[in-house]
């Protein structure tokens, strides 16, 4: 028996944390049926033991929370875990972490540029942002260095250099967050980059999210108008002494080759422009209390994709095709005479005849002006969503000269799927691509047009996301941002962070729908409850439930208050229990509705059930979560409200054998949220099936109902129909996209017409990728019977039309895998867990190990 996969706060040996840690480990054993009998965690700060859990008789091996005294800042800690299993075997393993600055004890002062620049525009931008600013500090060190850390952050996106060398390969620090209350700072190990004598530190600051018109902080947060930096270099010398070199106003600042950088419009890099005249900096007080040690692994280049081919269109454009939609940047080998302007236009898909097509209002254009020397160019402060690149101005365009760089927050891959059907296998890969392409710092809707943290999209997608990657640290950080927005607005906005375009949209829609200010949106704002809940279901994480309790209950209370206070035109005794006012997106993107009109005008019909149903769902879950957390009063309070809400829904929506709306999603959500009264079960089930049949056997659901569609069909005894929808190849369907050559998940079922003509939808939106979770549970047959997979049901659907299927899932306990053919089933169950297997009409109870049936 041995221990592996040790994680601290669900990260590997994190450097620079400011949270009390939680610890996790996996057990690997040769012996079958291995369980953890006891564990003991000890934490040391070099020599001293600062915490010893003692021997704990428990099977817990994830989210084991540190319970020692408060940690010391800037300190390296080692932790060890010793486990004894049920067979008497003992194993030990160790990992480490290091704290950052814990008490806002910054020695550095904020310094800002004095180079004049226009205030950021109010709209989506136009591609002519001001030049990036480099801050430079020269300093001397008196002796050789034993250990050095740099803590730094900026307003803007910065790239630091020490003595001309990059500190690591992270990109776009300090990343995207609710800057007003959660500006991340970064911790770097720079021991090897310093020398005794003269040194130079520089931070090159582009616009990043902070100054980008579409992503900058809300006006009410008084966003600054010029780039600023803060840093502190903590040097420990070989002789035991130490020194701090901190930002203090002795820096200079200057502009250089990055003439303009914008997240949507791209970057202009002029290699003929050297760094210019030094300007003084100005010391300003921007405060420290909003600084947070970056709680997630940094954005990095995670995968490189060499170009597949270069071709010329009938319009004479030169196009580079990477064969895959990716979020990030293109790296290009440029060899052109001095002064040549080389233009790179990034786009997701071509016109039907292979031509350039930009379906988004984001320009996605990078420009490089050559100084005559051959260069490998990659922009510094922007990123795009693209599969293709139109290249203009480069004398020779060679396939070998281009690489697409995937930029994303690295996360541990937890899921693999492959089966005998190439289209279904490709669908899974497309899901994974959209996931990776949309998880740069925060979960986004798309990497092109909006790059926004839509609460609804991630709410829908969280279960599928966990079937592919470990998102614990990533979503925990995002939920802290959500709580920060909520604290400001009293409700959960449609995007987190909440930025000017969405504030404007919310206020406009609120005004049109008789509400005031920032109001909640059903199925979007509910992310406050649904995301932590799904995180718990995927991993057994109760820490996130506890830490999110204030935020989720505040959200639930705001739904209850809206229901109580806003009149929706029904008799008072019903009205007060229904969330039935305000603007909602409804199900969003229901195919049949889209044909009827503008996106916002058609929301109302499905909003009529989406709001009360989701309101009920959140409040009902709050009762369950309160029960789990041991809050009996809260449990009773939410349960009583939930019952009243359900009764009101029954009276208003379910007094007849049909729902008032004949949209599939209404039935789907009613079943999914356990809202269907017993006497309506049969007629509603028949009605849902009839609606699908009347629609030619095609689905007609939008964002909010699609995640439940196939499950509901299984539940009402029509698994055959669920399977048919999965295999459907006409539009709208998942495999239609695959047949049309999709390499990621489309925003809209009709994003590309059958003749290959693209529309303006994004081709890289993970929401409809939610089906990947169903495939894992129903096709591979892996279902968590207890949240976190402490007990798993294995029930493959071998009649689905595949000859074989392999699915693995790296659970909190370790690797779980299912491989089935028509002849046999091989199951790997992680240590410390059990499973019930259904195979060929038999039922088997098994423990950990590899089992062949
Ligand atoms: C985004 C979404 C989002 C929606 C809400 C769209 O523009 O791309 O995915 O959830 O707006 O209306």
Automatic annotation (TrEMBL):
Alphabetized Gene3D superfamilies for the sequence: 1.50.10.10, Galactose-binding domain-like, Immunoglobulins, Maltose phosphorylase, domain 3
Domain Bacterial alpha-L-rhamnosidase N-terminal: 145-273
GO molecular function, one term: hydrolase activity
Domain Alpha-L-rhamnosidase concanavalin-like residue range list: 314-405
Catalytic reactions on record: Hydrolysis of terminal non-reducing alpha-L-rhamnose residues in alpha-L-rhamnosides
Keyword set, alphabetical order: Hydrolase
The Alpha-L-rhamnosidase C-terminal domain, residue ranges: 781-847
Listed EC numbers: 3.2.1.40
Pfam family, any one: Bac_rhamnosid_C
Record's protein name: alpha-L-rhamnosidase
Organism of provenance: Nocardia niwae
């Amino acid at each position: 028996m041995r221990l592996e996969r040790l994680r601290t706060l669900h990260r590997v040996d994190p450097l620079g944390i400011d949270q009390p840690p939680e610890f996790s480990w996996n057990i690997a054993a040769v012996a079958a049926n291995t369980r953890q009998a006891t564990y003991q965690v000890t934490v040391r700060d070099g020599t001293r033991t600062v915490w010893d859990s003692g021997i704990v008789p428990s099977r817990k091996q994830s989210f084991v929370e540190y319970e020692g005294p408060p940690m010391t800042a800037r300190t390296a800690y080692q932790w060890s875990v010793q486990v004894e299993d049920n067979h008497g075997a003992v194993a030990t393993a160790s990992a480490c972490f290091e704290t950052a600055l814990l008490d806002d004890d910054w020695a550095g002062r904020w310094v800002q540029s004095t180079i004049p620049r226009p205030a950021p525009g109010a709209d989506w931008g136009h591609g002519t942002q001001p030049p990036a600013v480099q801050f430079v500090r020269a300093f001397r060190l008196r002796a050789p260095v034993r250990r050095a850390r740099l803590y730094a952050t900026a307003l803007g996106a910065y790239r630091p250099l020490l003595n001309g060398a990059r500190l690591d390969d992270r990109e776009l620090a300090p990343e995207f967050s609710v800057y007003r209350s959660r500006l991340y700072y970064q911790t770097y190990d720079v021991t090897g980059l310093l020398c005794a004598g003269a040194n130079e530190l520089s931070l090159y600051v582009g616009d990043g999210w902070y100054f980008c018109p579409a992503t900058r902080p809300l006006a009410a947060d008084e966003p600054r108008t010029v780039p600023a930096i803060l840093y502190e270099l903590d040097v420990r010398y070989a002789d035991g002494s130490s020194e701090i070199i901190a930002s203090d106003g002795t820096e200079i600042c200057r502009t250089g080759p990055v003439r303009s950088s914008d997240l949507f419009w791209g970057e202009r890099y002029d290699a003929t422009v050297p760094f210019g005249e030094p300007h003084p900096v100005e010391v300003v007080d921007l405060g420290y209390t909003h600084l947070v040690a970056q709680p997630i692994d940094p954005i990095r280049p995670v995968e490189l994709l060499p170009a597949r081919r270069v071709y010329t269109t009938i319009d004479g454009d030169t196009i580079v095709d990477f064969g895959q939609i990716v979020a990030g940047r293109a790296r290009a080998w440029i060899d052109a005479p001095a002064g040549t302007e080389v233009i790179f236009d990034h786009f997701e898909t071509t016109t039907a005849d292979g031509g350039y097509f930009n379906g988004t209002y984001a320009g996605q254009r990078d420009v490089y002006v050559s100084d005559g020397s051959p260069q490998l160019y990659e922009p510094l402060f922007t990123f795009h969503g693209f599969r293709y690149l139109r290249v203009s101005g480069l004398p020779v365009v060679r396939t070998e000269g281009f690489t697409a760089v995937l930029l994303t927050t690295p996360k541990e891959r937890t899921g693999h799927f492959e089966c005998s059907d190439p289209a279904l296998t490709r669908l899974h890969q497309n899901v994974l691509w959209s996931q990776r392409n949309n998880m740069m710092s925060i979960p986004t809707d798309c990497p092109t047009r909006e790059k926004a943290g839509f609460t609804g999209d991630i709410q829908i997608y969280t279960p599928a996301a966990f079937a592919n990657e470990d998102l614990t640290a990533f979503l925990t950080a995002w939920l802290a941002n959500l709580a920060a927005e909520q604290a400001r607005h009293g409700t959960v906005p449609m995007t987190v962070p909440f930025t000017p375009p969405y504030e404007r949209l919310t206020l406009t829609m609120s005004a049109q729908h008789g509400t005031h200010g920032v109001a909640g949106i059903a199925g979007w704002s509910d992310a406050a409850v649904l995301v932590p809940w799904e995180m718990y279901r995927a991993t057994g994480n109760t820490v996130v439930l506890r830490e999110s309790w204030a935020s989720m209950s505040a959200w639930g209370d705001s739904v209850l208050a809206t229901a109580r206070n806003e009149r929706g035109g029904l008799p008072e005794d019903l009205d007060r229990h229904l969330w039935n006012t305000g603007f909602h997106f409804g199900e969003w993107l229901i195919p049949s509705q889209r044909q009827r009109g503008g996106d916002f005008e058609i929301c109302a019909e499905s909003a009529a059930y989406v709001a009360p149903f989701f309101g009920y769902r959140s409040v009902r879950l709050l009762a369950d979560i309160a029960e789990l957390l041991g809050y009996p009063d809260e449990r009773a309070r939410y349960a009583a409200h939930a019952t009243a809400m359900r009764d009101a829904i029954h009276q208003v929506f379910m007094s007849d054998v049909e729902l008032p709306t004949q949209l599939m999603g209404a039935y789907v959500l009613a079943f999914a949220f356990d809202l269907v009264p017993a006497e309506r079960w049969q007629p509603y089930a028949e009605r849902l099936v009839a609606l699908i049949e009347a629609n030619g056997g095609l689905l007609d659901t939008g964002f909010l109902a699609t995640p439940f569609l196939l499950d509901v069909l299984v539940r009402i005894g029509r698994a055959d129909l669920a399977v048919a929808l999965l295999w459907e190849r006409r539009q709208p369907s998942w495999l239609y996209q695959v047949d049309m050559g999709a390499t990621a998940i489309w925003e809209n079922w009709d994003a590309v017409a059958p003749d290959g003509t693209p529309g303006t939808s994004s081709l890289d939106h993970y929401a409809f990728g939610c089906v990947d979770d169903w495939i894992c549970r129903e096709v591979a047959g892996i279902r968590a019977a207890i949240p976190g997979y402490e007990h798993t049901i294995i029930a493959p659907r071998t009649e689905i039309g595949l000859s074989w299927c392999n699915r693995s899932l790296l659970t909190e306990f370790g690797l779980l895998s299912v491989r089935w053919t028509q002849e046999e089933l091989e199951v790997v169950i992680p240590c410390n867990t059990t499973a019930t297997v259904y195979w060929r009409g038999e039922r088997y109870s098994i423990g950990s190990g590899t089992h062949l049936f």
